[in-house]
Amino acid sequence: MSKGALLAAALVAATILWGCGCEPVQVAGGPTPMPPPPAGAAEMLALAEAAAAAPAFRDQLEPSRRLGRLEIPRLGMNEWVVEGTTPADLRCGTGHLEETPLPGMGGNFTIAGDRVLYSAPLLRADLLQPGDEVIMHMPYGVFHYRVESVTRNAPDDISVTYPRGYDSITLSTCDPPWSTERRLTVSARLVRVEAAG
Predict the structure, then answer these.
(1) Whether residues 72 and 169 fall in one domain
(2) Contact (CB, 8 A) for 123 and 116
(3) Same domain, 47 and 82
(4) Which domain holds residue 117?
(5) Helix (H, G, I), strand (E, B), or coil: what is residue 100?
(6) Angle CA 43–18–26, to nearest 5
(7) Residue 151 pLDDT more than 70?
(8) Which of 49, 69, 93, 156 has its CA 20 to 30 A from that of 138?
């Protein structure tokens, strides 16, 4: 969807949620005040703005460059995420699998990280449980995800990167540490978006 179409959709949603912007109806005793925006309206607008900004941000990414920050409160983790997953990229932080979309683009944002090398950002990823929070801080928004599953997969199972039909994040790392026998995969679903800033 184009940036203009997303902005138009956000404006339509805002009009539906907040009213048409017309003058309040006059009733005995004075004007009827407009109701406050419904809960979630600001979040919907933040998601629409993020969806519009993400493609332009993606177009300017370069290998090994920081694109955002990954925070996992349960693990006390707060790590940089860089573009790419080569060894050179992973020396700079956890890496965004370039073939996957960014947060807000409606797909499965996938991150790889090591459990033993390069500061071992995902060393304790096996401690995550369904319901835990994963937060991705991007220049154009803050994306809150809730863990749905923690699984172990074959190292060549790329299905974990496939879109799920909703905004999601996948964390992938070796399992057990120091082995390429399996991949530990943490899958989480987007539950909230905050505007950047």
Answers:
(1) yes
(2) yes
(3) no
(4) 63-194
(5) coil
(6) 160
(7) yes
(8) 156
